Amino acid sequence: MNKNELLKVMIVDDEEMIRRGLRAIVDWKEYGYTVCCDAADGEDGYQKALVYQPDLIITDIKMPIADGLQMMTKLRENCFETEFILLTGYAEFEYAQKALQLGAKSYILKPIDEEELVKTLIEAREEILQRRKENFHNKYFSISMEQVITKLVYGAVDEEFIDAANAVYGFQLPWKRYQLVLLEQTKNQETDEKVLDLLKDFTKNNIGFVFSLNNHFVVLTKDVIFEQGKMRLLEDLNGKLRKLPGYTQPMVVSRPLKELEQINQAYYAASYFIEHQFIFPYEEIVLIDEVGNPYAQGKISNANQREQLDYRKIAEGLCVAVCGNDLTGISSLLENLGNKCVESGYDLEQIRIRYVSTYVSVMYLLKIQSEEIFKQEGMVDVVILQISRLSHLQSINSFFLDKLSQIAQKLNSNQQGNVIRKMKEYIEANYNSDLTLKNLSKIFHYNVAYFGKLFKSNTGMSYNDYVTSVRMEKAKELLNQGEKVYKVANQVGYQDLDYFNMKFKKYFNALPSDFHKDNNK
To answer: Is residue 43, in this structure, part of any structural domain at all?
Structure first.
């Protein structure tokens, strides 16, 4: 709700001179307006009002096709709250009274007096803004602070809602940066009340806001608190929480966020971690990335961040290898993962956890490629149960090699079949175009070399041979219809007649002219 916003005006009159004159007679911007459009009659005005949504309509009454009153009536029936100013002559005064009954702001007698028009425009603007303010108040001022924060977390906000949050609670959104802290509730009422008191005390110096959501305590901070120089605040809070009898819940902290839209992603990532924390090494304070994996734990250290980054790169590399059906790449990256675990001094249980967390990351990255495969293969509980029976690194590695290889083949068979079908359909519909491998690879967003191999592996013939076969069969069909050879060559994509003859002879073991004669005997 911006007081400085220019309100939109539509001018409706069947006389072009009047429409032009109204545009010129007033400095619209000075009085808080902009002319968004004009119309020549009531029906034209009605249609344009639906498109441009003007705040104010200045309209003549008597016009051809549909008059001003008919336009007003139709717009009111569509629940338009647009203000109207009527332009009328003395002979039309009775019409003007009807317009006022329909809710018109006022009427102005022709010829138009500039001072009277300006005065009416100023009054109309004040009434429009007041009505907006009342609508805004009715819509938002009953909302609680917890509802505001909940909507921010769920990503259900727009510009108007942010204005409401700022007006009602002084949120001063958008903030420079954001960070989310999530703690699972203990389901012990006394303990949870004490946790909530500590979190409220933590945020009392305008650090942020705390609330409950889906059996979690959520803290939304106005700045980054989990970074060098600010860790003391979080460590102090953690120390107080650990003093509560039996309190063991980890404190899950999102990565620093720059945009409001990222709050929703951060919440679901933190929730995911809490739901699957049993597959990760226990830490009191955990910093998680966008898919719910810890990429820094406990106190921040460069060495730890580098180690986590290495594991993330392995997960990203595995995703690429699976998407490309690169079984050698999958094997190499899993071997690298095993070596990293050994170098880190992990015991067997830690190795299992690292492999599972990497698998989870790959599944979430693959979710973008195929929601169906994510649903089929993303069952972490089943994977954990299966590897709990494996007692050697080699067997764990082999298990995940088989798992990811199967996913790669399934993913690529599904995708490649669809892509090849679309490619063949395109070739058959555009056989007379410039169908070079390079051009088609651009259309389907493939690397040229990979595209050629993909086509041959799925069709059993090279790309060029397939294009030639489509063109030759089409040429045969056209020759059967009595078309001239030179026309057929051109119609199937060959500009050089000699080259067409050569390709045709090679394919059918006969020249097109011979074929043409045979079919005309």
So the answer is: yes
Q: Please report whether residue 298 resides in a domain.
A: no
What pLDDT is recorded for position 297? 37
| CA-closest candidate to residue 151, choices 1, 289, 260 | 260
Does 501 reside within a domain?
yes
Q: How far is CA 100 from CA 40, 60, 90, 96, 281, in A?
A: 22, 14, 15, 6, 73
β-bridge partners, 180: 220
The CB-side HSE value for 206 (13 A sphere, CA atoms) comes to: 5
- Domain span at residue 134? 7-139
- Same-domain status, 84 and 157: no
Residues 284 and 150 in one domain: yes
Pairing, β 216-221 against β 208-213: antiparallel
pLDDT digits (tens, 9 = 90+) for 391-436: 788 888 889 999 888 888 777 665 556 677 778 888 888 888 888 8
The span from the CA of 115 to the CA of 94, in Å, is 24
How many whole angstroms separate alpha carbon 65 and alpha carbon 41?
A: 7
Convert the pLDDT of each residue in 180-212 to its tens digit: 889 999 888 899 999 999 988 887 776 777 878
Mean pLDDT lowest among 120-124, 212-216, 416-420, 497-501:
416-420
Last-in-domain residue among 139, 172, 199 = 139
**What three-state secondary structure class fits 54?**
coil
307 burial (CB, 10 Å; 0-12 / 13-18 / 19+) is middle
CB atoms within 10 A of CB 196: 16
Distance, in Å, from the CA atom of 366 to the CA atom of 479, rounded to the nearest integer, reads: 50
> Helix 448-459 crosses helix 463-480 at what angle (to 10 degrees)?
60
The reply to whether 386 and 438 lie within a common domain is no
Asked if residue 350 has pLDDT above 70, the reply is yes
